[in-house]
Amino acid sequence: xxxxxxxxxxxxxxxxxxxxALDLLDSxxxxxLTPQEIQQRLQKYGPNELEETAGRSTWEILxxxxxxxxxxxxxxxxxxxxxxxxxxxxxxxxxxGEVPFKDTIAILAIxxxxxxLGYVQESRAEKALxxxxxxxxxxxxxxxxxxxxxxxxxxxxxGDVMLLEAGMQIAADGRLIEQSNLQVRESALTxxxxxxxxxxxxxxPEETDLGDRLNLVFxxxxxxxxxxxxxxxxxxxxxxxxxxxxxxxxxxxxxxxLQQRMTQLGNVLVTGSLILVAIVVxxxxxxxxxxxxxxxxxxxxxxxxxxxxxEGLPAVITVTLALGTQRMVRQNALIRKLPAVETLGxxxxxxxxxxxxxxxxxxxxxxVFTNNKTFRVTGxxxxxxxxxxxxxQTISLEESPEISALSVACAxxxxxxxxxxxxxxxxxxxxxxxxxxxLAGKAGIEKDQWNNKLPRVVEFPFxxxxxRMSVISQVEGVATGDASSRGVDPAIANxxxxxxxxxxxxxxxxxxxxxxxxxxxxxxxxPLTEEQRQKIxxxxxxxxxxxxxxxxFAYKPLAEIPPEGSDEASEQDLVWLGLVGMLDAPRPEVRAxxxxxxxxxxxxxxxxxxxxxxxxxxxxxxxxxxxxxxxLTGQELQRxxxxxxxxxxxxxxxxxxxxxxxxxxxxxxxxxxxxxxxxTGDGVNxxxxxxxxxxxxxxxxxxxxxxxxxxxMVLLDDNFATIVSATKEGRVVYTNIRRFIxxxxxxxxxxxxxxxxxxxxxxxxxxxxxxxxxxxxxxTDGLPALALAVEPPxxxxxxxxxxxxxxxxxARGLGSYMIRIGIIFAIITIAxxxxxxQHTHAPEYQGNPDTWxxxxxxxxxxxxxxxxxxxxxxxxxxxxxxxFSNIFVLAAVVVTTILQLMLVYxxxxxxxxxxxxxxxxxxGVCIGFSALMFVWIEAEKIFLRIMGKKAV
Length: 952
What we know:
This protein has 33 helices and 28 strands.
């Protein structure tokens, strides 16, 4: 077969016999490929590498920052201001001591700083693909032309025969040719924590899930033990890892709600500014009956353009988000992408893994069935403390000796170790066996002591075919105080007559029960009746229906050590001990977090690879779902079209036996329904879904580097409750952003209207220069806005539904508030401006006639201080609030007021900013007019309270 006729990646390799797969790839298990075949295939399939699509370059990202409409308008203002200064410089019309181009330099500095700020946020390159590439092995051993050679992994081609052994990272996807005791850890790819036993001789159905393809190996996974010979079937982007890379790169990053709102804000402000500029210029030209005053009109237009752009807003938002990330990291939520802080506040659906996030990732025994009684077991985690309860009543172990007997089997037939580390109980070994050691500890059976009383001499290990394991221990005599020459611990005294050995067996309840002939009843054994068998099987079904993982236990006294390989014969005529049911128990704090989600209008959804019964039991226990709610399995989901899934996605809160690629479809279906989705994940193939979700949340403890790089947020404690806490913080951040946008833009509108009014009411000159406006927008507005960004949350922040992520920035009355306050601001300032102009142009006035402009400047700045104090709450009066609950607002008001007065009374600053000295009378008038702003806002609150309405 030529290279051109080789099968494509769609071949279902797990459903083929080894010989058929070798024929399809025209390869030989003993000699591999020839050099000529290798060359042909390398040309056709390319190197065994993950390919990266071209992204934006650094320069493109930087230039994109200056495409923002507000920055473009500021650039235009700076250029026109520079041209006017150049004309004035050449004509010699500059005022004495005036610095040319200062407005141009200041505006361009702001533009550059805002551009750099945007670039720093956006230039964090996606590193998920780089993390994927790290999972590929650099060197690999293959058979080529009947010789064993070591080559670079990128040189592998389909048809190569690859050799694997323990500790190796697998370099390509392949079909097993032969294997010996091969175990592979595939957790990064499938999400399953336990290693997988591989078998070359299997031929599997085509629809077999990825995690159950036991005759295949996959790129990026790791060989734990054993060795194998593998036929390479897929390389590069056609491997399972390559498919993930393709999905990852196909997911396009959408602008966050905040970014969309800021774009909308810029468009509205610039459009409104240009309309006002046109009105002022046209009105000025008509008023002057010509273009004689065009330079003055241009200066007014420049000032209006600078006034309308909130130059300090990007910096204030960035600092607010950064402060939010600091608060979140203290709650174990690490934010990787800054806008995600605010985005969290818009989440309507949280799709969560079960294991480790909703649960403790610690198997805990919940129920024990022995001697025809079902005992409930209490306790948390791996701590060996808890009670045994029968019908709700705690019982003593003396009353139920069968519990001690069963607990001995749990401790002895076990390879895990329970130990205390830094004050916490932890397990070394398999979590299931860890739960059994903990159960034994609760019954007073310590594994270390019993390893001495019953030292292990032989083991029949667990395998997926046998579904059980047995250990044979030698019975050591212990002193019991009686006259017997051979004392045996009372817990097992009834197991023996004179036999020197005991065999303990655990495994599948059905298979272990089938090999049992007797049953242990408290302090003796009796023949196992059919009625008892049916009762045990019914109890097993009952436990399984509650989502418990159930194991059966039995024992058998032995006169001698059985020969090697005699497990089938030895594991007969067992004495049945009982059933143990365990569960990865829910985290105790998650129930309250789920309830908080419900109250906040957020729907929690469980997505797990676990069995549907287990998923239903946990979800019902936590309040994620109700009894009888539908569970959608991976196989059902696979058969659904995208349209069918979209119709069902709002009705299903539990997804079980789901593979990570299904997660991507679930996220997309929810998003098409208009939901705003947070998705958790830890495996490599969770990465596309994490990137697609509005908020991708990776696990900090169990998560892979790939999932972390694809995420917006990392849970440092892998805890669902942390997601809810972060969502609350996101809501607080968004509320505070809206608060300071109201504050900043209300004053900006007032500035624009004041500047526009000056020529229209016949006052000469521009009341504010671009430099003074920049001072107001950056300092007078900026410092109090930063202080408002740390305003504590309102009490009801998690007792309301999330605001729509698609709502306008002006929604819920914010736009009308800005216009209303802007007009009031302007009326107060224009009234002051008219009085000040008349005052400074009176014949008896001794000061500079332009002092009226400084009074306007000072009034606008000090009025904003009253605005900052009043806007802290939408509904409560300032006198009803604790002034020290946000000490930063008070500090910002005091500092900003002092800085403003320095511009008036410190000569060098007065010269640079073009202000004039104010008398105490003039300053008092400015403060009096400024105070009217505070009075108006407080009066609004009282009016709305009387009318029974709630403010924005």
